[in-house]
Amino acid sequence: MMKKRIVLFFLGMCIAFSTMFVPTAVAAENIGLYAPTVYNNSLVVTWSQISNAQSWNYESKLPESWNYNYYIERSKSANGGYEYIGKTSQPTFKDDSKDLIPGKTYYYRIAFMKNNIVQYSNTLAVTLKTASVTGLSKTSVDNSKAYIKWNELVNAVRWNYETKLPESWNYYYYIERSKSKTKGFKKIGSTDKVNFVDDSGDLIPGKTYYYRITGMVNKTTVKSSTITVKIKPIKFKNVRIAKANKKRVVIKWSQISNARSWDIKTKTSGRSYGNYVYYVQRSQKVKGGFKTIGGTDGKSYTDESKFAKGKTYYYRIAVMVNNTIKYSSAVKAKPRS
């Protein structure tokens, strides 16, 4: 019985003695961790130099003279989930990881070693600046084109619109357009500049369209607000009968901007033999019954038909802009009264 008590006493003393040399958990140390510089894609954290901080191996958690003093950990939660993101022997670190999301909050702490014990600093919460394409506006609009501009997206990267991933040989900005303010946006162009001309040829004069710009910071796509652009309608000016007698009727009008050659029979645009910018149509009725009598690229046309005595003739001009056909109001002439 006495021997058993002696053995138990000896074992107890060994356990107590051995625990004196086992590293114990150390409370988080306030090392003045702060972020003096924060962008929408990166940040810098700084802290006070820790006296007697050892060089050590992050994986083995053992001193290692040729290694680093500080290891930086980051989490998306204040309650844990910290992961290693970098190392340094200086009391400063730039986190420019490509997975940082603009506007998001991240939590940082520094792991270091003193007296062969791994310790952790206080936790620092840092919110990245938001990223947005601002200042989208229209600069000019006519009956076939829209001119828009916007402000430069800070820290924008070139990226692939289809894969939604950074791609150094691609573009910074993609232009999207829709006929609806809330849905149906499709890519219509790309650019490295902060302006764009929509001259795609399918804009309908007089119609309203909606535009927005998409860029990328790190791996996050960033969209602008939506702007409304109304394309100017096709307007005829000064369509008139300049001369009317028994031999001829001369019709004149002002030039239509962005009008191009087209085929009135097929209603397709294109410059080829027999195609004109303007077509002249004539009828003996105010509405309906108009037939094409000729075409021209100029701003006047002379009708030298045989006119019936006492008859009134009505003329109108047909033009095409962006595959949209427009007819002028009719003007009348009575060549042989």
In CATH, what is the homologous superfamily of the largest domain? Immunoglobulins
Q: How many helices does DSSP assign?
A: 1
Mean of residue pLDDT values: 92
Task: Classify the beta-strand content into a percent band.
Answer: 35-45%
Q: What would you call the structural class? A: mainly beta
Which regions contain 5 or more consecutive residues with pLDDT less than 50? 1-25
Give the CATH topology of the largest domain. Immunoglobulin-like
Would you kindly provide a written description of the structure presented here, covering whatever features stand out?
This protein has 337 residues and is mostly beta strands. It folds into three domains: 25-127, Immunoglobulin-like (Sandwich); 137-230, Sandwich (Immunoglobulin-like); 240-333, Immunoglobulins (Immunoglobulin-like), CATH 2.60.40. The protein is 5% helix and 41% strand. It contains one helix and 30 strands. Strands 5, 6, 8, 9 and 10 form a five-stranded antiparallel β-sheet that branches. The relative contact order is 0.11. Mean pLDDT is 92; it is low at 1-25.
